[in-house]
C-alpha cells in the first residue's frame, strides 16, 4: 500500500479536472497560501526572471519591472506592510515576495495601452517556469499600490500592479486559520469555455 503525505494529498487534489487535455504543468499549478520553510535557491530566482525576460511584448518594449525581497529582510517587512489585511494574514508564510510594475508610457510619450497585457504575459512565463521548479506563485491584487509606490521609491511613469507570494510547494496547514485551511482544500472550479470563447460573434 502506498502512503502519501498530507502535502502529496493536497497536491493531487489540486490537479485541475480539465475538460480537454492540456500541458501537465498547467494542470498542476495552483495558488497555495502555505510554502516550505526554505529559501529560494539563487539559481531558481534567476530562472524565474529569465522566463519573464523572454515573454512576448508589444513592439518588444518589455514594460515589466519587479521588486523582490527575501523573508527576514527589511524590504520584505515593508512589502508585507503594503498588503491588504487579508493577505497579511497568510503571505508571511512565503519565503519570497515580489512586487510587479509596468511602464506606463511608450518611448514617444504615449500611453502604453498594452503594458498590463505584456506584464501578464511575463508573469505567465514566470508561473510556468516556477511550476517546472516545484515553486508556487500566489498572485495578489490586495495591495495598497499607492503606498508601495512611495515606500519603494518607484519613479514617475511606472505603476505598481500586484504582489506575489513565492515559495516551494509544501508547508504546514496549521499555519493557516480554519477558514483558510478549508479554502486550501476546496475544489477548484473554472467557468466553462462557452462562457468566454465565442465563435464568429459575441454571445451573451
UniProtKB/TrEMBL annotation:
InterPro entries (UniProt xref): Nitroreductase, Nitroreductase-like
Assigned keywords, A-Z: Oxidoreductase
Signal sequence range: none
SUPFAM superfamilies cross-referenced by the UniProt entry: FMN-dependent nitroreductase-like
Domain Nitroreductase: residue ranges: 26-79, 85-168
Matching Pfam families: Nitroreductase
Family note: Belongs to the nitroreductase family.
Protein's name according to its UniProt entry: Nitroreductase family protein
Organism, as annotated: [Muricauda] lutisoli
Amino acid at each position: 500500500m502506498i502512503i502519501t503525505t498530507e502535502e502529496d494529498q493536497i497536491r493531487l487534489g489540486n490537479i485541475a479536472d480539465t475538460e480537454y487535455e492540456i500541458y501537465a504543468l498547467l494542470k498542476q499549478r495552483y495558488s497555495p497560501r502555505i510554502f516550505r520553510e526554505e529559501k529560494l535557491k539563487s539559481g531558481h530566482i534567476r530562472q524565474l526572471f529569465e522566463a519573464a525576460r523572454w515573454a512576448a511584448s508589444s513592439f518588444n518594449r518589455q514594460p515589466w519591472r519587479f521588486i523582490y525581497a527575501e523573508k527576514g529582510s527589511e524590504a520584505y517587512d515593508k512589502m508585507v506592510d503594503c498588503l491588504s489585511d487579508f493577505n497579511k494574514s497568510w503571505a508571511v508564510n512565503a519565503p519570497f515576495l515580489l512586487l510587479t510594475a509596468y511602464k506606463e508610457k511608450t518611448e514617444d510619450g504615449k500611453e502604453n495601452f498594452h503594458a498590463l497585457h505584456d506584464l501578464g504575459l511575463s508573469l505567465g512565463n514566470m508561473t510556468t517556469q516556477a511550476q517546472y521548479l516545484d515553486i508556487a506563485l500566489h498572485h495578489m491584487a490586495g495591495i495598497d499600490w499607492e503606498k508601495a509606490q512611495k515606500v519603494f521609491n518607484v519613479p514617475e511613469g511606472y505603476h505598481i500592479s500586484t504582489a506575489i507570494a513565492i515559495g516551494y510547494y509544501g508547508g504546514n496547514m496549521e499555519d493557516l486559520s480554519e477558514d483558510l485551511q478549508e479554502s486550501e482544500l476546496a475544489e477548484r472550479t473554472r467557468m466553462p469555455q462557452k462562457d468566454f470563447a465565442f465563435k464568429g460573434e459575441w454571445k451573451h
